[in-house]
Amino acid sequence: MRVFTILLCLTLSLPAMAARELEWDDLVPEGYEPQKVYGALFDEIYGDKEPDDIEDGDDKGERMMDAIDKAWREAPLKQSLDNTVVRLPGYGVPMDGDEEYVREFLLVPYFGACIHTPPPPRNQIILVKMEGRGVPLDLAVGAMWLEGTLKVSSQDTEYGTAGYVLEGQSAEPFTGYPQ
Hints:
Blueprint: H1 2-17, E1 20-21, H2 34-46, H3 61-73, E2 84-97, E3 101-108, E4 126-130, E5 135-136, H4 137-140, E6 143-157, E7 160-173
Parallel strand pairs: 1-2, 4-7
Antiparallel strand pairs: 2-3, 2-6, 3-4, 3-5, 6-7
Helix pairs in contact: 2-3
């Protein structure tokens, strides 16, 4: 009877251990729209001027970039995701490792994010800390699926502010969404 009870408990707990598949929009709290934040900042700094009318090297450009950077570093996070086992796709931006494996990297929703300035809002950047040796370098610089425990924790990095930390358990090449 004891073995049956243990097997029953394990069977019932398996769905709870399955990773929750996320899309990048799932990391953004309802009602937060970065386009509206950008628009409000633009209006505040440039008034009625149209974006196409702004010259390269405009004296207000640096003020605008600083305002966007500050707003993105303070973007709201989805607290309900704290300590959730998740699976999501993204692109890696390597930060720490060796010539074969990357142990720490940023996961971002599109290729090239965090290379340009300003980086995406913090609710679109995940600092990944892989267990073990990490992820092979060739996988870490491409599109991949990551699975692990997501923590809501803002972390400043050299490439931008990550709003989440993923304690990475596994990574595999992105081959598309399951049908």
